[in-house]
Write a structure and sequence with these properties.
elongated; about 300 residues; alpha/beta; Glutaredoxin
Length: about 300
């Protein structure tokens, strides 16, 4: 009797681990999406879906373990998920990555080695409940379907993917006349930003969304071989803030300009930061914020 109660308590604990992990990922969805995209197994848009599918699966497994139904399906699903995560972590370690795996969002920072140890410990706990049995009912498949449906609706309502909610509008922020004025006066007039393909970013050093935009842009720049010297970041802030910005954003170190006229910088983008402008021979080709970055357009621009 006590052994059965112990297994039931352990199963509830493991279910709670899945649910806590899923909830923390939802709260940190933007960074989790970028983390998935950083492996470049999937496109940016498909990475949005993969992130949500992973969270939905964790919710379904967590609820199933706590409710104690369809035990074998939930057990094999859980073990398979941990094995899959572990293989990804081994791949990350082999490629020298030390960044957080976001398995508990941004709230518990674990590097790939630490997360792999955590997964090994949890797999041992799952072995202890292998022979447990869940409750039986003729409606267990109905419960499963309702759990999947409820989890899917909840995840997409709480955090809809950017590619379904954002519309790219090349002129929504940028004031072209003011921007041209900036390009033709110090300190930008000596940087040859009106020659060839250039990317100009408007960032604030203390803006977390700017940091994520820099990370996303940096990944695309590396994926598609765009010259890093053709990316210029215009910053509001100071040199110490710029250094902290790059540390937090995990992006490539680009050419940086601490723009002296903050008022003019903000007027150029209607106060909307981040704004990323793609230029070809001085003409604006694309303009994006963080949420409406279009990978297809950016790839076509960046391939030299």
């Amino acid at each position: 009797m006590s052994n059965s109660l112990g297994k039931s308590a352990l199963k509830v604990l493991l279910g709670l681990v899945f649910i806590v992990s899923a909830v923390l990922k939802i709260l940190d969805m933007d960074k989790f999406e970028i983390y998935i995209y950083s492996y470049h197994f999937f496109s940016l848009n498909f990475s949005f879906l993969v992130a949500r599918l992973a969270i939905i699966l964790e919710l379904v497994l967590g609820i199933g373990l706590i409710a104690n139904y369809l035990h074998k399906l939930m057990w094999w699903g859980s073990v398979s998920m941990f094995v899959g995560y572990s293989l990804l972590l081994i791949y990350a370690i082999a490629n020298g990555r030390t960044d957080s795996c976001h398995c508990f969002g941004d709230y518990l920072q674990l590097d790939p080695k630490q997360s792999l140890i955590k997964n090994g410990f949890l797999l041992v706990l799952f072995l202890l409940i292998y022979r447990d049995e869940g409750w039986r009912t003729p409606f267990h498949w109905l419960f499963l379907c309702l759990t999947i449906l409820a989890s899917t609706v909840a995840v997409f309502l709480v955090s809809p993917p950017d590619n379904y909610t954002s519309i790219s509008d090349p002129d929504q922020n940028l004031q072209v006349e003011i921007f041209d004025e900036m390009l033709n006066k110090a300190p930008l007039d000596s940087l040859d930003l009106q020659k060839g393909k250039q990317v100009v970013c408007f960032f604030s050093t203390g803006c977390e969304v700017c940091q994520m935009a820099a990370h996303k842009l940096s990944l695309m720049q590396q994926f598609y071989g765009f010259p890093p010297e053709n990316v210029t970041c215009l910053f509001m802030g100071n040199e110490e803030g710029v250094a902290k910005f790059y540390e937090a954003s995990e992006s490539v170190l680009y050419r940086n300009v601490l723009y002296p006229d903050v008022t003019l910088l903000l007027k150029a983008v209607n106060g909307n930061l981040p704004t990323i402008v793609f230029l070809e021979d001085g003409a604006v080709v694309h303009e994006y914020g963080f949420r409406n970055m279009n990978e297809v357009e950016i790839k076509a621009f960046m391939v030299m």
